[in-house]
Structures are given as C-alpha cells and as structure tokens.
Amino acid sequence: MAARGRINIDWPLVVSALLLSLYGIAMVYSAGQTDIPTFVARAWRNQLIWFMLGLAGAYTISRASVRMLEWMALPMYILTTILLVSLLFIGKGAGTAASTKSWLVIGGLRLGQPSELAKLTVVLMLGKVLASRREPPKSLVDLWKPALIVGIPWLLIIAQPDLGTAIVFVGIFFAMLFWSGISWRLLGLIASPIVSLILAGNAHFWLAWFLLLLALVFSYKPYLWEGVAVISANIVIGILGPILWERLQPYQQNRLRVFLDPSVDPRRSGYHVIQSQVAIGSGGWFGKGYTDGTQKRLAFLPAQHTDFVFAVVGEELGFLGVTVALALFLTLFLRVIRISERANDSFSSLIAFGLLASWFVHVLENVGMTLNLMPITGIPLPFFSYGGSFMLASWLAIGVLLRIAHEGRGGKHGPFAI
Amino acid sequence: VSFHPNDVARRARAATLISVGLMLFLTSAFFRTQILHKRQWVLQSEENRLREVPIPAPRGFIYDRKGKIIAENVVGYSVSVLAQSEDSLRGTLRKLAGTIQLTPGQMDQAVRRYRRAPTRPAVILNDAPFDVVSVLEEHRVDFPSLIIMSAPKRFYPDGPAVQPFVGYVSEISETELGQPQFAAYRAGQQIGKQGLERQYESVLHGQEGSRYVEVDARNRVVREQGAQERRPVQAGSLQTNIDLDLQLYTAQLFGDSLVGGAVAMDPETGGVLALYSGPSYDPNRFIGGIPQAYWDSLRNNPKNPLYNKALQGVYPPGSTWKLATAILGLQENVITTESRMPQACNGSYFFGNRSWACWEKGGHGSLSLTGAIAQSCDVYFYQLGLKLGLSRLVAGGVALGFSKKTEIDLPGEIKPRYPDRLEYFNQRWGVGGWTEGATSLNLSIGQGENAQTILNMARFYTALASDGSAAKPEVVRRRPERQKIMNLTPLQIEELRAAMVGVTSAGGTAASAALTGVKLAGKTGTAQIASLGRSTCDHAWFVGFAPADKPKIVVAVMLECGGHGYLAARVAAAIVGKYLGVQPLYLGGTQGD
Fold it and tell me: In terms of Cα–Cα distance, which of B551, B556, B373 is closest to B466?
C-alpha cells in the first residue's frame, strides 16, 4: 500500500506530455528567432513559467480524489458560467483577434481565457450528469440535460465570438455521448443538423444527405415526434443555413471561404494559410534547421508562435519533426483511451475520454489548418502554442488523468510510486 | 450508462482506430506537402524572400579613329527602393525627403517607375551625388527597403565638343516603353537618346545582370545575397571614323560666338572626320536627369543649341550650288569649261521684265566657266540656267542627290528640299503662279526651292573630290559605299577643281582662306534668307576639299547669319589645315560672295 498522498504514476502519459511540452517550448523559442526581433523573442520564457505552474498544478490535482472533482463539478460549472457571462461585458481581445471578448482582464492584468477553464468544467459536469444515469440516453428527450450543460457555455463562447473554441465543445459533447454507450444511430440523428448545416451550401449534397437521414430515422424508429423534430431541424437548417451565412461576421465568412479556396484572397485571410503551406512544404524531409526557417525568420509566417507554431515545426524540422510530434500526440491519445478504458468508475472514465476529445479536436483542427485541411479558426495546439491558460489547463488535465489512472485498474499495482 | 467491460473495450477499440486513423491521415497529408510537392513550395519560399535587383550593364565605349575615347563610363550611384505598394512607396519617399533633398517631381517619377515595373526596385535617384549616398548610408537603419548601389555612369570626356554626333543617354521614357522595339526594356533603365548613342543602342546597351537580396515580409532588406549573382555583360564598343583632335579643334573654332555647323569627311571612304553644330551643350549634364534650370536655359537660348544644325538644319545652299549647275552644263554638253555666255556681266541681267542682280554691282565682264566659278558670277550662271532649262535643272539636281537624305548612321537627319519634278511648282504656286525662266534663274544660283543640309553639301563635294562618285557619310567604320552621281571626264573634273582652287587664290571670293603649301579647292556661298517677321540675315557657306589634286578631306561649313562666304571659308580652311598639318596663308584680295 502506497503512502498517503502518493500515487502510482502513469509514466507513458507523463513522459509523452513532458516531451510534447519541451518540444513545444523549444518551438516557441524558435518562433521568436526572427531577423527583425519582436516581443515573441521573449515568449518562450513566459511559456516555460506557465509550464512549471502547470507541473505544480498537475501534481496538486493528482493528489485530490476523483470524488472531490465530482463534488466540485457543479460549483465550478456555475463559476465558469458566471465568468463567461461577465466576459460579454468586460471581455477584451488580444493579438490577431483583437475585436473579440475572450480575455478576462482585471486592472490591466491579463488573467487568462475563461473558455480554457470552461473546457475542463464542461467535461466534469457532463461526466457527472452522464454518469448518474443507469442507461445511456436512448431518445432526444433524454439528452436535454447534457445538451443544456454544453449549450450554455457554447452559446456564451459563440457570443465572444470564438468559433474555434465553440467547435471544441461540440467535439467534447459528441465524444462523451459516444463514450457513454449511446447508439451510433442516435448519435447520427443528433449530429444530423450539423451535417445539414455544412451541406446547406450545396442543394444536391444536402438532398442526398437528407435521403440518408430518412433511412436512418426509419431504421432507428425513434418516437414519432422525435423523428419529426430531427427531420424538420434538418430541413430548417438546410434552408436557414444560407440565411445564417449572411449573418456571419465578414472575417468569419472569409475564413470559411478561404478554407474552401485559399487562393480567393491571397493577401489577406488566405495569405496566412498559403504562407503556412509554403513554410511546411519547403521544409522537406529534414527541414531548414532549428531556428533557421526563412518563412518564420522573415515574418512571412503569421502567428508563428501561436496558431501556426506547427508550421514552424514543419519548416525547420521537416517531415521528420512533424512525424515525431504527431507520434507523441498519438502516444498521448492512446494512453488516455487506455486510462478511460480502465477507469474505476463511469464518471472517471467519462471525464478522461472528454479530456481526450478536447485535445483531439485541438490537434485535428490546428494541425489540419496549417495544411488548409481545416478552416482557420485560431485554435491553439496543445503543449505547443504560446499561451498560459491553455498550457496550465492542459497540465491540470494531465493531473486529473494521473489521478484516474492511479485509481483505475492496474494503476495501483504499477511498478512506480512517488 | 453502459460500462460493461466488453462494451468499453469495444468503444476503446473504435476510439483507438479513430486516433490512429487521424494521425495517419495527417502524416500522409504532411508527406504529400513536404515530400511530394516540396519543389513547388521551396520555389514559393524562395520567391518570398529573394528580390531580384538588376545590375545595369556598362555601356560600350566609343572610340575615335585613333582609339581615343569619346564616350566611357565612370562610377555613379543609384538609389532605389523595394516597395510593397504604392502607398508604402510614398511613405518611404516622404520619410526620405526628411533626410535628403527630394523634389515632388522626383517623387512622382519614382512612383511612375514603380507602377511600370512593380517587381523591380523603384529607382529614386539615377545618379546620386556622393554626399547624398553617404548621408543615406548613415541612415541605413531608418530605410530598410532602400537599395544603394554603384552603377556605371556615362561620361563624355569632351562633353559639348562631341555631343553633336554622339548624343546622350537618359532614362527610357514612357513613350519609348510603349514601343515594340524597346519591349525588353524596363522602367528606370538608361537608353541612348540621340546621336550614336541612339543609332547604335543595340550595340552599346549590353545585358543587364542581377543579384538577389533577402527581404522580410515587409520588403525590408535583411541581407545582401552575393552568391546567386548574374554578372552583367558589357556591350561591344564602337570604332568611329571621327578624328577627335579635328572634332575638338572644330568645336574650338566655333567657340561660343559662331552659330552653325561643320562636317568633315574622308572623300575616299565617306568616313565622317568631324561633325559639329554650334553652339553645343554638355551631354554629361543630361545623365541621370537634366537639371530643370539647365534645360530651360538651353530651350530659351536664341541660338538654339538643342537643334543639330549639321543634320537637322536645311539652308539655301547659295553659290556653293553653282558647281551643280556647272556639272549639269558640262554633262549635257551645253558648255565647256572655256565657254563664255552671250552677255558679259555688267552687274545685272535683264530677264522677264525685271533686272536680276549679280552680287558684284560693278560687274565681272566676260568670264569663262572657270572664272565664273572663281568669282561666283551670278550673271554667268543665270544664262547657263536658262540654257539648261528647268526640266534639266530639276532632273539633274535629283540625280546629283539633292532631294534625298544622305542616310548617315545618325538619327534625326532631315530630308533636303529640292523639287523632284516640275509638277511640284504647280502644287506649290498653282498653275500659272510661276514662270519657268524665273525659277530656272533662281535654281541656277542655289536659291529658290532648294534647301540643303550641311551634311548633304559635304556628300555632294566628295564626288568632285573623287572620280564623280559621292561617298555615303558614315560615323562608325563600315564598308564604304560610293555612288557615281556625275558623268564627267577626268579632265573636266580636273578643270572644275582648278576653278575651285581659284576661289581661294588671289582674285577668288575666298582668297583669305588659302593654305600654305596645299591647294584648297572650294566654293563660297552667301544664302539670303527672307524670313517673315525677322530681320533677314545672310548665311555664310563654304564647301571644299584639299589637297586639290589628291583630296584627303572634304569640309562643309555653314555659319548662320555669318555674313559673307569667305568667313565660312576661313573656318573651313582652318579645319583642313589642322587635318593636313598646314598653316593658313592669309592673302589679301577680293572678298565676296
């Protein structure tokens, strides 16, 4: 029996997270190495400090029982919601997204982005609600609580507006529903309005999807009113979609448009993604050498320390560096899946999987964006992108996962204990 | 919730599959971009950071016949800026104006150059003085997009003396940029504007080189990249027929006071030994932009220095044309060199209800052709003209080449004015508005519908200085081109030359232009200009050659408002004397037309 306060460490999890963080800080350092120096040259030091804080936070949180997290979920969720509401009045923008209200600033001091905290608390709250059920949700009406839990912060973040982070919440929602054992066909029905939204621009695609949906409805045989609700939601969105499009902010429209065809506007929003591809593509097998990327050095690459830090990896360390980074992420993901699988209770299992979903969406969206596979949403890359809140939040999540691993099957009898 | 271990394991497998699938997908996407499409992106990355900066090629040198330098290059500096947009260029220019002197005109010019060729550095100063360059080098940090480089600058060591044939170079104009023959040129480049510089632009231009500078996203020059330099190719040089010493001497003779032109040719080859138009201007001041004050002073100068009097001025040839009348008379067998006219000269000739004056009011008495040439007797040539008749005068003049350009290898030559057929007079004066007799009388003494360039008169006299073949004038050495224009026996030519020697001998009209030891053959002329609104003045002409028996140089001199022909003859004699190395012999004697 381990001493009180000591836990068995899941080393693959910690080592992959440590390596990712050190790799990331090294890239933030390189991002500051430009021919004409800017404030970014000093960013790596801040990042290192946040990393240290993150380590301390992870250590602390790993000492707390998962039950404590479950107990804290509701108060923290309420607190987060209050913070998000207050942002609508006192929120400030930053950097390339100066017009948004994502930052909590008090007395000139940037305290962080509450939406980062919201990712954690939504995972906890959603885990708590889903875990409290005997059966996985079987109908739409069963889903009103989970939908509300995600929907409130989601709407508040949309209002900032922060499209990228809002997408993460959608990812968390569906991933955790999936992990709760929901039928994939019901998942399909829930997701169907989103698919309709994406396909709304093209009448043929939408019609094809709509026919597929009808088949799904008949095969799942939901309550009549549910079937009607899903189908009418799809119809409304398929028709409202184009109208909603008109109401998007011009820069949001641009980002989506540039995603579809980056050459439409090469000097403005499309410029970013083209320069990112130039940086990555010119890296080749082994890259131009650490700190020697010309796209970055000469400031052709925008947001090289935040949104596009992965393009610096591609340019300076080449395909090799990219593969190493992606392999580290995969190691982390597989380890978290394993932790979810072996968790002692459904709450622990659900929140572990929710945290995984959050990272997963970030990596898919951020890395995909650097190659123009995803729309530009200004979403950071975990452990890499410069930004204190996210580094801290990621390491707090590692702390939670360590705790779950410790409490789960196989964790207690692991070879290492501190 | 369903957390039976089997369910969870199934979902974990699905999640694992999705995670691995995503990573494989991303990895393959990176493989595609970084490995398969690498070349395209590398190219774009290089295009991003490297800016081509042209290195102008040094122009070819121009040499005289003895290898002396007429045009060369010296070290100059050009200042240009790598602009991202017109706005950023204007911003840089405004900032620059706070450091160096920059006129609004120069700023607009730089913007125009940018618009014409946005990918090239926009030239701000073509020829920056050294003190401006050192100020800019000092403030280098403030102007990171500035490119200062040494550029070869055209230099004419003898400036104004050689300008009439060498021309000058300057920046290519908007109009020229639009012309197909200059399609390869870019805004800001130098181009020959006049004279040899223009005529032989393709020879002298050379091939521009380039080097690359590394810039950042805001076009700030981060480092100069030497390695990928493409060296400019220096152009070929031009070997001319010009005798630089003679040219300088001619320019010196004209000085500041004489207005007119002079052409010296080698009668054998047609090579132009000297070609001058006075007053001249300094082509060196035209390089890198003409200072406005200098330009204004040239434009407002009543002596018209911008106008090349040897190539572009046409003047009635006056009595220098009497040799043409004489040649036609001999060719048509109307006269011999000993023939006398029915009426001796008593100072005037009565024809068609009016009296036609001879320049010598006292009359010359009865003269042979030889004497009539030496003394330039108008009455003799009036009668010869009437004997020939207008159609033979017109056709003969055309055959002698008075209606055509010489086709010298210089741009801007003006076509002489000479009627090419009788119909011309009807068109000019209307049917019945002219009479054949009066017109013949005028033409026979080089007046009337006849205006020649100095160059064309020199070309005509090369035929008299040889076997009757006129040599095409050429500044740059090539194969001589000669054309037989008159059909006279060697004896007749010899007799005409003897008559022309009489001009510069005692009793001739230009006796004061004789040379020691060498016989100068020639003909004076005084052309009367009756121009409206301006006071009339006489242009002084002399066209001749020496030595008379074996001519080595043909000279044509015309002085605007120079008064009597003997003044032009003195200038011509000095040029000939310089070339042949003999002294003028100042004789007294009659001086006249």
Answer: B551
CB B208 within 8 A of CB B189: yes
Contacts of A367 in chain B (CB under 8 A): 26
Q: What phi and psi values does residue B63 have, to the nearest 5 degrees?
A: -115, 155
The secondary element (H helix, E strand) that includes residue B529 is none
Q: At what angle do helices B378-388 and B436-444 cross, to 10 degrees?
A: 130
Q: Which parts of chain B sit beneath pLDDT 50?
A: 532-533, 588-591
Characterize the bridge pairing of strands B69-81 and B146-155. antiparallel
Any residues with CB less than 8 A from the CB of B302 and at least 6 apart, and which? Answer: none
DSSP letter at B530 equals: -
Task: Please choose, from the candidates A110, A236, A234, A117, the residue with its C-alpha nearest in 3D space to the C-alpha of residue A168.
Answer: A117
Give A330-371 pLDDT, tens digit per residue: 999 999 999 999 888 889 999 999 999 999 999 999 999 899
Does the pLDDT of residue A417 top 50, yes or no?
Answer: no
- Residue A282 contacts B, CB cutoff 8 Å: yes
Q: What percent of chain A has pLDDT over 70?
A: 90
Interface contact flag, B1 A326, Cβ < 8 Å: no
Q: Are B382 and B441 in contact (CB under 8 A)?
A: yes
Task: Confirm or reject contact between A277 and chain B (CB < 8 A).
Answer: yes
CA dihedral B112→B113→B119→B122, nearest 10 degrees, is -120
The DSSP result for B301-367, as a single string, is -TT-TTS-TTTT--B--GGGGHHHHHHHHHHTTS--TT---SS-BSSEEEETTEEEE-SSTT--BS-
Give the chain A residue whose CA is nearest to the CA of B6: A341
Q: Residue A270 contacts by C-beta under 8 Å, 6 or more apart in sequence?
A: A258, A262, A263, A264
Distance, in Å, from the CA atom of A69 to the CA atom of A83, rounded to the nearest integer, reads 19
Q: What is the pLDDT of residue B247?
A: 97
What pLDDT does residue B532 have?
45
Report the C-alpha gap between A27 and B199 in whole angstroms. Answer: 61
User: Which run of H or E residues covers position B553?
Assistant: strand B553-559
Mean pLDDT (chain A, rounded): 84
pLDDT at A2: 41
The ipTM of this complex is 0.88
Q: In B, which residues are within 8 Å of A36 by CB distance?
A: 216, 220, 222
Task: Quote the minimal CA–CA distance from B49 to chain A in Å.
Answer: 7
For B8-21, the pLDDT digits (tens) are 888 999 999 999 99
Q: How far is A369 from chain B (nearest CA, A)?
A: 11
Give A 108-127 residues with CB within 8 A of chain B.
none
The pTM of the full predicted model, rounded to 2 decimals, is: 0.73
Q: Is A278's Cβ below 8 Å from some Cβ in B? A: yes
Å from A414 to nearest chain B CA? 20
CB atoms A284 and B27 under 8 Å = no
Task: Kindly report the nearest CA distance between residue B295 and chain A, in angstroms.
Answer: 44
pLDDT of residue A99: 57
pLDDT tens, A197-217?
777 767 788 888 888 888 888
* Helix, strand or coil, per DSSP, at residue B268: coil
The verdict on A364 touching B (C-beta cutoff 8 Å) is: yes
Q: Decide if A294 contacts B45 (C-beta within 8 A).
A: yes
B129 phi/psi in degrees, rounded to 5: -65, 155
Confidence class for position A411, pLDDT limits 50, 70, 90? very low
Contact B1 A340 (CB under 8 A): no
Tokens (6 digits) for B540: 């002084």
Tokens describing residue A89: 């009045």
Q: Which class for B208: exposed (0-12), middle (13-18), buried (19 or more C-beta within 10 A)? A: middle
Q: Which tokens belong to B517? A: 């030891």
